[in-house]
Amino acid sequence: MGANNGKQCGSEGKGSSSISSDVSSSTDHTPTQAQKNVATSEGGGEGLNLGPCALSYSDLSMRTLSTPSPALICPPSLIPTAFQNGRGSSTSSSSITGETVALVHSPPPSARLLPPPTLSGLGPRGCPEPPGIERLPDPCLVRIFSFLPTNQLCRCARVGRRWYHLAWDPRLWRTIRLAGDTVHVDRALRVLTRRLCQDTPNVCLLLEAVVLSGCRRLTDRGLYTIAQCCPELRRLEVAGCYNVSNEAIFDVVSLCPNLEHLDVSGCSKVTCISLTREASIKLSPLHGKQISIRYLDMTDCFVLEDEGLHTIAAHCTQLTHLYLRRCVRLTDEGLRYLVIYCGALRELSVSDCRCVSDFGLREIAKLEGRLRYLSIAHCGRVTDVGLRYVAKYCAKLRYLNARGCEGITDHGLEYLAKSCAKLKSLDIGKCPLVSDAGLECLALNCFNLKRLSLKSCESISGQGLQVVAANCFDLQMLNVQDCDVSVEALRFVKRHCRRCVIEHTNPAFC
User: Fold this and answer.
1) pLDDT tens, position by position, 16-56
2) InterPro entries given for it (predicted)?
């Protein structure tokens, strides 16, 4: 494995690389709509769209150039005639119809693709003046390039030598983003890491974030490439990549010690997160078996159980954000492990974990003042008792989602309002036992409330809403869909909370 990874990450030139394509012929999830895949490298922090295509890699022979040589991926129909005829320094990785072609070319001459000089563009001595954009200093051009999508950035690299070098500025290649069902992600990662490893053989020190959400063709082999070549990785998102297993995740967290953000939501084969045995042996007793992850999203990891959560908590002791939505096998026992090992938790979601009850909330309440965000939506076993534990000990709570917890009444809402006066967002939709009395208590204590959802609360009327509007002037969002609220009450809210967006189902109010 080590030898193979060394080869795939080997250096044969200098500079960085990109993936670009203009083909949009792949099929979508629906038979009548085409889906565009995404391949992005971020310098300005924005996701960028590319054409959908698989990445051709096999038998790619790369020439060593004195200047950076990008591997441009484009459809055969768009290959310049010079390359199709065998002229120029290019290498085709595949000639199969429908496959993309990897081009490795030398930097273009500085005058290539520039418009011919005109009489109006002549300088004082009769020499052609450069276009206006050419007069910009290098930092300005790099800043402009940071807003371009990857395929456009690759095209800029072909304008001239100066643009070529600026387009491959390392600051523009700190993030790689791929998406789509038709992208051959494993090959793409091998090509990209090889080209990004050229200044530091076998190691890519530039790459800090890899976003592969929705790449269903991603396998453990692609993550092995990332683990072996990107020790400075800080962010990894593989949401919806259901072919990824525990072993690949173990390799990533073991070989990327700076990894802080991990999103494996929808990866149904991931049942645990831990260091590999080899990594655990190498760690000193001082460091123990800790992983530096602070943000972990395991939404829809259906196979996760209490024992797996125990291992996660024991290894990821620095967790501050943890999302376990729809992990239906978790129980109150698993939440106890979180409190034991992860005392720094600030945000926790156990939405739709229907085995969580008041006893689990009693454990969560032991996080005390550190907890800011809590979602227990559709946890049907939660009642006023559990809510009272949270309200009593988590006084700094700012966000609570208790939608669908039908056991919550006005008493629970009163506990919450009097203890968590700094609450800013509350969702108690589909709680039929909450009435105007609970709303009035909430409005008289939580003056900083900005978001309130009462969707499908059958006992709510206009009277409670008017008390909320008269006391919570900073209210920005109010959801009263499927509630029996009069038009007069809605207009009262609008007059007192002018910035409030009201979601309603009353056709008479506009």
Assistant:
1) 333 433 323 333 333 334 343 333 444 333 333 344 333 33
2) F-box-like_dom_sf (IPR036047), F-box_dom (IPR001810), FBXL15_LRR (IPR057207), Leu-rich_rpt_Cys-con_subtyp (IPR006553), LRR_dom_sf (IPR032675)
3-state percent breakdown (helix, strand, coil) of the chain, nearest 5:
35, 10, 55
Distant-in-sequence, close-in-space partners of 17: CB < 8 Å, separation ≥ 6:
70, 71, 191, 192, 194, 195, 196
Residues 6+ apart with CB under 8 A from 413: 387, 428, 434, 438, 439, 441, 442
Tokens of 495: 């007059």
What is the spatial distance between Cα 195 and Cα 316, in angstroms, rounded to a whole number?
Answer: 32
- Cβ–Cβ < 8 Å for 220, 197: no
51, 37 Cβ separation under 8 angstroms: yes
Q: Pinpoint the alpha helices (H) of 366-504.
A: 384-393, 410-419, 436-445, 462-471, 487-496
Question: Are 16 and 202 a contacting pair, CB within 8 Å?
Answer: no
Reported as a single tens digit per residue, the pLDDT across 247-303 is: 999 999 999 999 999 999 999 999 999 888 777 666 544 444 579 999 999 999 999
Q: How far apart are the first and last CA of the chain?
A: 64
Measure the CA angle with vertex 317, ends 400 and 260; round to 5°: 80
3-state secondary structure of 210: strand
Other CB atoms within 10 Å distance of the CB of residue 232: 15
Q: Which residues contact 232 (CB under 8 A, 6 or more apart)?
A: 204, 205, 206, 207, 208, 256, 258
Take residue 124 and report the two structure tokens written for it. Answer: 């004082």
For residue 315, give both structure tokens: 């290894």
Does pTM top 0.90 for this prediction?
no
